[in-house]
Queue: 2 jobs
Job 1
Amino acid sequence: MGAHVKNRLRVLRAERGWSQAELGGRIGVSRQAVNAIETGRHDPSLPLAFRLARLFGASIEEIFDDGEPQEQWRV
Amino acid sequence: MANRKSSGVSEALGPGEKMERDRRQRRTFVLCVLMAAGGACGLALAIAEPKGAGILQGMIPAWAAVALAAAWLVSVVGGSLWYKKHADEIDLAAPIWGQAVGGATIILLYPIWYLLWRAALVPAPDANVVFVALYVVMACAYLWKKSR
């Protein structure tokens, strides 16, 4: 189903001592959804990625990494 | 709030966990209402079925046909919108996948059945068989996606 992006969700969540259900409730998704994103089984939609970025006070690139060097796509 | 690294149940739920529990309960309620509506429609159809005819055979009263068609339309369209409101993108991924696979299967196989029928190689296409096959394929694709 395509290449999934890596992410730091588990680390960011652990730093705050949140359970998957706690994080899910704060961004409006289920515990299963958080688990699927953390384990790379599901790539979040752009609106959900923005909600996560705002919640953790980080940019999307600081949370998610698709493995592509940014310079390659810079114009 | 209570800090826990696991997702286990605890006496003191954090604010996010309460929101997640409430969202899950709303979603479960929607599913229960839709299942009850489906059961009620099936029961009504069974009652309206003519005695002695085969399954899904024979005429049913016009009032029953119109009422069931309306109930079907309202529950499928309204239920889908209602469910979408309380489901997240993971909840929606499996039914969307199931619908896509089901639709693609019918689009692929129906013309083959039709063409073979035109050559008198197979019986004429049957709408009931197509409909049931669509649901079986959708259910299989849905369960496969859910299990991943």
Job 2
Amino acid sequence: MRGSGTRIIAAAVAGMAVGLLVQTAPAGMVVSPLKQEVTVKPGRTATFYVSLSNRARNPQATPLSAHLEVMDFAVNEAGAVVFKPPGTLKNSASNWITLTKADVTLEPDRGEEIECTINAPYSAAGEYYSAIVVTMGRKSRTASGVHVDFRIASGVFVTVPGRTFPKRARVASCEVVWPGQKGSRNLFPEGPEGCCAEKVPGTFLPEPLKVVAVLQNTGQARFEAAGQVRISNSQGRTVFKGPMTTKRARVLGGDTRRFECVLDKPLPPCEYTVRVEFDYGSQWGKAQARLPLVISAEQSALLAKAAETGPPTPGKAPGAAIEVVPKALAAKVPPGGFRSLKLTIKNTGQETVRCKATVVGPADAPSPASWILLTSDTFVLAEARSKNLPLVIIVPSEAAGSYKATLVLEVGEVDGDRQRIEVPIELTVKGGKG
Amino acid sequence: MWDRTLRVILAVLGCVTCGLALGATGWVQPEYTVTLSPAFAGAGQTRTGSTVLTLNHDGPATIQASVVQAGDEVLSHDTTADTLVTSYSLTGAALGASADADWVSSSQFVAPARSYTVEGSGLSDITFHVRGAAAPLRANDAGAYSASIVLTVTW
């Protein structure tokens, strides 16, 4: 009874959704999910799914094909995924996984769930990893130019219960990296053509001063890590505090991961102590490190100059400990369609702040501000808290072309001065179905 | 059965609210070719090309470049196998701080350590740039040059 009722609800919802999707969904092949957790008991079999769908709906759309394969993966210190042949890595689950299909061809507006079966050995208690790599239909190399093929990797994080693996971590290294010092990210690589003055159109970001720490997972259990750095002066007063960021916060057993924090505040010449602390979800404690930092008059001047003349971090108001991700919002929406976007606002400071969000349009051009709805425009953020701010965009059916607006976030400590963060919004109203 | 039905409902609701299935990620185009125009005609020339790739995603993702066979990333003459000094870059607001600020050599572009973080959700435009340059002190063969890159999206 419950099954049939649910099927009716699902069919009704699907029917409504298909009507809306005709207007909103873009073309192309999509894969879902991008990662998933799978638990399988030792000696037992479990099933999971990877879904593919061809979103094209226009009459001229052609079928899309894709090839699926199971691969091992490792994550390097920089947080990049490195794919390896199946069964070649220590914590591989690839040889336990079978796919019901390796090649799929989907007509426009069609989808398919690929069933994946995992069979864990009896003595396999622990954590294992694989990826289902979906390669979109590939044509031969073209006569001239660069041919770009696409793959989408769906991560499979397998847990075989039976033993408890405590989370363990340590800070393997921690240093303050001055611009030009070994270990700093080279934004202008000196390759064979690195000397060329021509720049790619984009934003110029000078290399900043950073605190760099490498966190090592010394256990066998994976964890998500979050870190912060505090710099205190010789009197023990905290003069700088900021989050440590990384490209991939999930650290697998045995892996190391590089975290960074940009030091964007001028500090007078003095002896300091840098404390780095990582929360990795362990009930027993946090991974910590501290190191002395002596800032000379010359280095202090360099810091002051960088803080004074360097471009402000996109999406971050000078002086306010607020981080906004992403730094810009962009969407393509068909006329009469709608789109949902999300902005994450994080208070990385030590004070509770009050935020007010508004959307404003340009004075000298057609403004899309009235199409953009904020579900919450005034809110309070306590220290270390973040908030997702959804924006719903409903485009009139007569709209066409490019439109620009700005999300203005006024941030201030309660009873304090307000500061302003601007997040550009770019809307392209184009196309129709498919 | 109940779980699977629920997943269908959630996926469909996800489509309604975001224009995208829950956890769904995909390139809007199945493949792309960046052309270098006009074609190479002799020594001392540099050509650039770019195209906008659109990624449909409902959360943060990572992009990495790779090749099927070593050397695929280098622009090579179709008949003589002569090569050009090849550089790439990815730019776009969605890449945030991971966007390239300058050309990246072809070997660095496909190096395993290199990755780009795509922030936010929805449709993100990412511009793929390529540059081919004649080697210093040597005349390259005239004609068409081609290369091949695989862009992989990961979680």
